[in-house]
């Protein structure tokens, strides 16, 4: 069994309620942080822990906190990003649904560290029932003296408010989220100024993902150095992985980032293998935006080494032969799946979710969807594949926010690794309507050149 | 004429009180949810103007937000709205088939409402239920692991709920 720091108690009966959560050791980190440590000591522990943002970008959380500006007399805010919308990702939902007090506890400690007296949880609008769960947890914490005025007699005041979004993937981008929190369209802002200097209502703001803030609880309880001992290299602590697609046991798993991708897919403790006795064809290991990999490059790196479920190993080989940990949305495709059709589905998603602010993204995502549709439905030309490549190149890096990159990468990776499947669609349009390309050579061992 | 009831007004005030003085516009998204739930499941121009007046902002500020987010309905919808996810992970688990089946069963295409005003079928993009696919949102909750049989049961459930209301 792997180490569990976040979900260990998630299935204790009644853990959703304060009394049970408290009895199981909950809110100890608030007592420790507020009574025995100061804000700076908390930031130091988080820095020492090596905790990296769990939303997708993987930026060191302690460093992000240390950037917050502290102008005299200007309130600061912590905002929790619960706008979980990256296809394949449903880990934050799981955490909030089953063990909401863990998030509230992490929010209180983090609010104290950052000096936020009014902290906001921005949750995607569709998670409507989770709003009730969170508000219940907040009111219980308040009734027990962990929120409100003069928390535990320390003089620290803090309230947590839950705001629902209304259906927009882009609001997971932190500056779009801030705009949305201000009651506007979710158009990302140009940085700088960064939110740490001018965020919500032009006040210094830190935006962190749900899982990141929950991880502050074990970090305070065990100490940053102990936390950093779990995992490997710069992948410290545990990570929630939401696994979906053609596997036997879809769900949310907490891993300590030392297990191999192969073990994660085939072990009964995790995904339990490919469903219906099929073979693995491809996988997107970190949410729909990150590069898709064929089975052979997923399980082993281009150098022939075992690939592990951590930040460094998943990105080994760069985009040429690797992928990314991203948000931990692990999407598995079996041998019957069509990579062209799947890429089209993702392209439609990004076209739908582009905010329309930057023309490369607004126009490019539409063109990519249109061209992919032609290829999928037997009306494509071979030159369309190069055209797709050209369009994604012109989106990447040319937009205000990373949605452009997120839309470009899945198309690029699909062409990079599955070009022959695209060509087969173009060259055999009628056959491609009848059957899928199948596994082909995508699981064959990769030839590793001998090193001199 | 649209006007919040006393209970709705109390909720409106609670929502606005969460933001700093003078930043009441921040409550716009939650207030639009409240208005949509209160006034027939969609946002008419009259409803949006009322929200603008309540928040002391201009109507255009409400329109531009209402048209940006996918959860706000700008046209009347059926009593029960089936919002079926069609993004990658759901597609891998057969959402195309579920969408086609619902359409066939209700005699409507995605985006349409049945002539009796009972059902609307809408395709949506990833709702964060990828491990429990295929799925749909129905009101405040998710219906997951959908099969044809489950769809039949949900339609029956809605019909009998509606019959009991009359």
UniProtKB/TrEMBL annotation, chain A:
Q: Does the keyword Metal-binding apply?
A: yes
GO molecular-function terms, A-Z: 4 iron, 4 sulfur cluster binding; FMN binding; metal ion binding; NAD binding; NADH dehydrogenase (ubiquinone) activity; quinone binding
What reaction does this enzyme carry out catalytically? a quinone + NADH + 5 H(+)(in) = a quinol + NAD(+) + 4 H(+)(out)
Where the record annotates domain NADH-ubiquinone oxidoreductase 51kDa subunit iron-sulphur binding, the positions are 340-385
Q: Does the keyword Transmembrane helix apply?
A: no
Q: Which UniProt keywords apply?
A: 4Fe-4S, Flavoprotein, FMN, Iron, Iron-sulfur, Metal-binding, NAD, Quinone, Translocase
EC numbers listed for it are 7.1.1.-
UniProt xrefs under InterPro entries:
NADH-UbQ_OxRdtase_51kDa_CS, NADH-UbQ_OxRdtase_suF, Nuo51_FMN-bd, Nuo51_FMN-bd_sf, Nuop51_4Fe4S-bd, Nuop51_4Fe4S-bd_sf
Family matches, as Pfam families: Complex1_51K, NADH_4Fe-4S
Q: So which cofactors does this thing need?
A: FMN; [4Fe-4S] cluster
Superkingdom is: Bacteria
Query: What family does this chain come from, according to its entry?
Result: Belongs to the complex I 51 kDa subunit family.
**Reported function:** NDH-1 shuttles electrons from NADH, via FMN and iron-sulfur (Fe-S) centers, to quinones in the respiratory chain.
What is the protein name for this chain? Answer: NADH-quinone oxidoreductase subunit F
From TrEMBL, chain B:
Organism from which the protein derives: Sediminibacterium ginsengisoli
Cofactor mode of binding and number, as noted: Binds 1 [2Fe-2S] cluster.
Q: Name one GO molecular function term.
A: NADH dehydrogenase activity
The domain of life for this entry's organism is: Bacteria
Q: What positions does the entry give for [2Fe-2S] cluster binding?
A: 85, 90, 126, 130
Task: Give GO cellular component annotations, separated by semicolons.
Answer: catalytic complex; membrane protein complex; organelle envelope; organelle membrane
Q: This protein is called what?
A: NADH dehydrogenase subunit E
Return the PANTHER family for the record: NADH DEHYDROGENASE [UBIQUINONE] FLAVOPROTEIN 2, MITOCHONDRIAL (PTHR10371:SF3), NADH DEHYDROGENASE UBIQUINONE FLAVOPROTEIN 2, MITOCHONDRIAL (PTHR10371)
Q: Which UniProt keywords apply?
A: 2Fe-2S, Iron, Iron-sulfur, Metal-binding, NAD, Translocase
Q: Which residues form a coiled coil?
A: none
CDD domains registered for this protein in UniProt: TRX_Fd_NuoE
InterPro entries, alphabetically? Answer: NuoE-like (IPR002023), NuoE_dom (IPR042128), NuoE_N (IPR041921), Thioredoxin-like_sf (IPR036249)
Q: Which cofactor does it need?
A: [2Fe-2S] cluster
NCBIfam families membership: nuoE_fam
């Amino acid at each position: 069994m792997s180490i569990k720091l976040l979900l260990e108690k998630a299935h204790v009966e009644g853990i959703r309620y304060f009394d049970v959560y408290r009895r199981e050791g909950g809110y100890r980190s608030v007592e420790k942080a507020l009574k025995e440590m100061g804000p700076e000591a908390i930031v130091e522990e988080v820095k020492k822990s090596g905790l990296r943002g769990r939303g997708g970008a993987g930026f060191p959380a302690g460093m992000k906190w240390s950037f917050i500006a502290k102008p005299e007399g200007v309130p600061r805010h912590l905002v929790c990003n619960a706008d979980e919308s990256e296809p394949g990702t449903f880990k934050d939902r799981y955490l909030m649904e089953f063990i909401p007090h863990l998030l509230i506890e992490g929010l209180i400690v983090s609010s104290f560290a950052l000096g936020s007296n009014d902290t906001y949880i921005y949750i995607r609008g569709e998670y409507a029932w989770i709003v009730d769960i969170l508000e219940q947890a907040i009111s219980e914490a308040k009734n027990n003296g962990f929120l409100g005025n003069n928390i535990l007699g320390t003089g620290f005041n803090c309230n947590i408010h839950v705001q629902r979004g209304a259906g927009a993937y882009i609001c997971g981008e932190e500056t779009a989220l801030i705009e949305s929190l201000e009651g506007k369209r979710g158009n990302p802002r140009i940085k700088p100024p960064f939110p740490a200097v001018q965020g919500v209502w032009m006040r210094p703001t830190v935006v962190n993902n749900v899982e990141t803030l929950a991880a502050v609880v074990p970090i305070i309880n065990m100490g940053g150095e102990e936390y950093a001992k779990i995992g490997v290299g710069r992948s410290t602590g545990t990570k929630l992985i939401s696994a979906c697609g053609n596997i036997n046991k879809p769900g949310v798993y907490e891993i300590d980032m030392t297990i191999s991708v192969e073990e994660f897919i085939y072990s009964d403790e995790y995904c339990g293998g490919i469903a219906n006795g099929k073979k693995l064809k491809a996988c997107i290991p970190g949410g729909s935006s990150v590069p898709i990999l064929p089975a052979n490059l997923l399980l082993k790196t281009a150098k022939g080494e075992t690939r592990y479920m951590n930040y460094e190993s998943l990105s080994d080989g760069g985009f040429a032969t690797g992928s990314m940990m991203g948000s931990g949305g692990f999407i598995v495709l079996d041998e019957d799946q069509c990579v062209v059709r799947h890429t089209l589905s993702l392209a439609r998603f990004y076209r739908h979710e582009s905010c329309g602010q930057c023309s490369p993204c607004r126009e490019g995502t539409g063109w990519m969807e249109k061209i992919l549709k032609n290829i999928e439905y037997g009306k494509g030309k071979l030159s369309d594949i190069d055209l797709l490549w050209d369009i994604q190149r012109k989106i990447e890096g040319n937009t205000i926010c990373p949605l452009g990159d997120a839309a470009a990468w899945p198309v690029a990776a699909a062409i990079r690794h599955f070009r022959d499947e695209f060509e087969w669609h173009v060259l055999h349009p009628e056959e491609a309507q009848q059957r899928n390309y199948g596994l082909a050579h995508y699981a064959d061992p990769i030839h590793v050149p001998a090193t001199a | 004429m649209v006007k919040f009831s006393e209970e709705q007004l109390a909720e409106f005030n609670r929502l606005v009180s969460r933001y700093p003085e003078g930043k009441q516009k921040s409550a716009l998204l939650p207030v639009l949810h409240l208005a949509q739930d209160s006034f027939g499941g969609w946002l008419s121009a009259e409803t949006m103007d009322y929200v603008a007046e309540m928040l002391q902002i201009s109507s255009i500020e409400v329109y531009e937000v209402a048209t940006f987010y996918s959860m706000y309905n700008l046209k009347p919808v059926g009593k029960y709205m089936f919002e079926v996810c069609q993004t990658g992970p759901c597609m891998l688990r057969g959402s195309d088939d579920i969408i086609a089946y619902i359409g066939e069963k209700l005699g409507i295409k995605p985006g349409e409402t049945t002539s009796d005003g009972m059902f609307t079928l809408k395709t949506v993009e990833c709702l964060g239920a990828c491990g429990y696919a295929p799925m749909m949102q129905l009101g405040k909750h998710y219906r997951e692991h959908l099969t044809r049989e489950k769809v039949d049961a949900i339609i029956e459930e809605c019909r009998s709920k509606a019959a009991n209301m009359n």
